[in-house]
Amino acid sequence: MITHLLITGGCGFIGSNFIRYALAERPDWQLTNLDCMSYSANAENLADVADDARYRFVEGSICDAALVDRLVAGCDGVIHFAAESHVDRSIIDARPFIDSNVAGTQTLLDAVRRHDDPVRRMVHVSTDEVYGELPLEPTDARFREDTPIAPNSPYAASKAASDLLVRAAHRTFGLDVLITRCSNNFGPYQFPEKVVPLFVTNLIEDRKVPLYGDGLNVRDWIHVLDHCEAVAAVFERGARGAVYNIGADNERTNLELTQMILDAMGRGPEMIERVTDRPGHDRRYAIDSSRIQGELGWRPTRSQWPEALEDTVRWYVEHEQWWRRVKSGEYREYYERQYRGRGDHQGSASRG
Ligand code: DAU
Predict the structure, then answer these.
(1) Residues 92-145: pLDDT tens digits?
(2) Which ligand 1 atom is the nearest neighbour of the CA of 257?
(3) H or E segment at 273?
(4) In ligand 1, which atom is closest to the CA atom of 278?
(5) Helix H or strand E segment including 182
(6) Active-site amino acid positions
C-alpha cells in the first residue's frame, strides 16, 4: 500500500536530504514537498529527483491555512522540517522565526486536527537547542528527553514554543504527533551560513574562517543521513506523543572542528580569524539518544569521524557551482553585515 506523505521545507538542507533518502529507501512512499522557497531553500538540491513519479513539489507557505488544509487532507502523514533555523539570523530579527516556526507549526497542527479521521501522524522535526546549554563539566552530562526546556536564542525559543504547541495538541486533542530533537547536522547541501559549509567554502575562496569567541564551545555532530533515517524510524515506529533525541555521540570543540577542516583542506592555523562571540552563545550541546536506540533500534552508521566530515568537505570542493550560486546575491549582504568589524585584524574573515 502506498503511503502519501506531506514533507514541509523539503528544499532546505535536511528536508532535501530526507526526500532523496526516502525516495531511495521507501519504495511505497509518495512525497509531496511544500516549500515557500525562502532564502535557504534551493530547487537545485532536488534536481536529480524532480522528475520522479513518486515526488511532487508545491510552492507555498506553511502559514497558508487553506493550502495546508488541502494538502493535509490528501496525505496519510506529515513530516515537518520547514523552519527558520539560523541562530545568528534570529539575533538580527526574530520575527520570521515566530511566523514560520510558531505560527506555521500551529497551522499544520490545526489541519491535522481537522483531518484526524482517519488518523494522520505528524512528526515535528525540532532541535536539541530547546534544552539550552550544558556546562563543559561534568563531561558525561547529556540532554535527555526529560531535561527541562530552557532555550537561549530567539531561534531556540521559537522551536521550543512550537514543541510545546505539538505537545499541547497531543494532550488536548489526542493527535498522533511526535517530536524529534537532533544535534548539529553536517553533510551535503547545507546552506553556507552554517559553520561547516561556511568554513570550507571560505577556504576555497581563500578567505579566513571566522571562529567565534575562544573556540571552545562544544557541538555534537551527526551526519544528516543518520538524522533522516532516525526521522523515518520515528514516523514508522515511534510512540504517539513521544519525544526522541537524535545524536551520534560525537562532541567536538569548534576549534577541533576547525582544525579538522583546515587539515582536510591542506591549510594552516593562519587561516583562522578570531571574531567577537555570538551573543548568548550556548557553551555545549550533547545528546543522549539511548531512547531511540533502545525503543526503535536506530543506530548512527554514517557519522564516523573524521571520515564522514572529510567526505562532506570533499562534497563542497566538488560542488563549487552549487555553493557559488548560493553565496551570491542576498547571501553577500548577510555575510558582510554579520561579520563586519568583528575580527581581530584587518580584512576580517576576508581574503587570507
Ligand atoms: O544543535 C542543532 C542546531 O545546530 C540546529 O537546531 C540549528 O538549526 C543549526 O543552525 C545548528 O545550530 P548552531 O548555532 O550550533 O550552528 P552553527 O553552524 O551556526 O554554529 C555551530 C558552532 O560554530 C557554534 O558554536 C557557533 C560556531 N560558529 C558558527 C559560525 C556560523 C563560529 O565559530 N563561526 C561562525 O561563523
Answers:
(1) 999 999 999 999 999 999 999 999 988 899 999 999 999 999 999 999 999 999
(2) 23
(3) strand 272-275
(4) 26
(5) strand 177-182
(6) 128-129, 155
Cell output for 240:
504517539
Q: Which of 14, 39, 219, 289 to mutate to test the pocket of ligand 1 (most atoms within 8 A of CB)?
A: 219
User: Tens digits of per-residue pLDDT, 283-308?
Assistant: 999 999 999 999 999 999 999 999 99
Q: Give the ranges where 93-216 is alpha helix by DSSP (H).
A: 95-97, 105-114, 154-173, 195-204
C-alpha cell at 204: 576555497
In 3-state terms, what secondary structure has residue 48?
helix
Ligand 1 atom 10: residue of nearest CA = 86
Instruction: Tell me the CA–centroid distance for residue 78 and ligand 1, in Å.
Output: 27
Q: What is the pTM of this model?
A: 0.97
Q: Which residues of 245-278 are buried (b: 16+ CB within 10 A; e: fewer)?
A: bbbbbbbbbbbbbbebbbebbebeeebbbbbeee
